[in-house]
Amino acid sequence: MAAWMVVSSRWLKPQVLKSLLDQHAWRGDEAVLDIGCGRGLVAIAAARRAPHGYVTGIDLWQEVDLAGNSPAAIHANAVAAGVADRLTVDTGDARALPYPDASFDVVASMTAIHNIPDAAGRTTAIAEAWRVTRPGGQILIYDIRHARAYAAQLKTLGAVDIRMSLPILLWGVLGWRFAATKPA
Ligand SMILES: C[S@@+](CC[C@H](N)C(=O)[O-])C[C@H]1O[C@@H](n2cnc3c(N)ncnc32)[C@H](O)[C@@H]1O
Q1: Mutation test of ligand 1: which of 8, 33, 37 has the most ligand atoms closer than 8 Å to its C-beta?
Q2: Closest ligand 1 atom, residue 121 Cα
Q3: Has residue 138 been placed in a domain?
Q4: Structure confidence by residue, pLDDT tens digits, 91-129
Q5: Which residues line ligand 1 (CB under 6 A)?
Q6: Which GO BP terms apply (predicted)?
Q7: Which residue in 18, 21, 73, 75 has the fewest CB atoms around it within 10 Å?
């Protein structure tokens, strides 16, 4: 089990991250939101793909979900990656995003929304992700257990071109990656 956890974190998770971000045709100037950004895996990779854009990470910094996560930790990682000039973080809840409607070209989230314990809370978080996505923008999600429910909800909200991966086994739990587009 320990070996599988190491393989998942060191090898498989970076593969999932790459395939998650590969779903978007990057122009390089996108405004990106990373929901549940933790120590910055998605946010930093997105900042590299948007050298003329801007990335915002938001997190509640729950130690129980990710040891050592904090604004200082992600900032240090962004500095080390050379993207600190275009990455900021906010403290906030995915269920009540502190941004106006249609703020972001890309809204991404990886292994975060499942941490909301109740289905109603996860539904609210997906509705919030949809609200802050600009028309023509894309939502990119990888999550364990509930990702297909998120995609189904986004379809009812009007998302198009929903592309769902085959099941992906990370840390011994099945997950799915998908992209969904908000019509322009
Ligand atoms: C397993 S970590 C994943 C971090 C990062 N996305 C990654 O893939 O490395 C889950 C993150 O979601 C955050 N989180 C959990 N519930 C949240 C909520 N309701 N709103 C915002 N962030 C939340 C946790 O604090 C934690 O940093």
Answers
A1: 37
A2: 19
A3: yes
A4: 999 999 999 999 999 999 999 999 999 999 999 999 999
A5: 36-38, 41-42, 58-62, 65-66, 69, 93-95, 110-112, 115-116
A6: methylation
A7: 18
pLDDT tens per residue across span 48-72: 999 999 999 999 999 989 988 999 9
Domain-located, residue 110: yes
- The token pair at 73 is 């930790």
How far does the centroid of ligand 1 lie from the alpha carbon of residue 37, in Å? 6
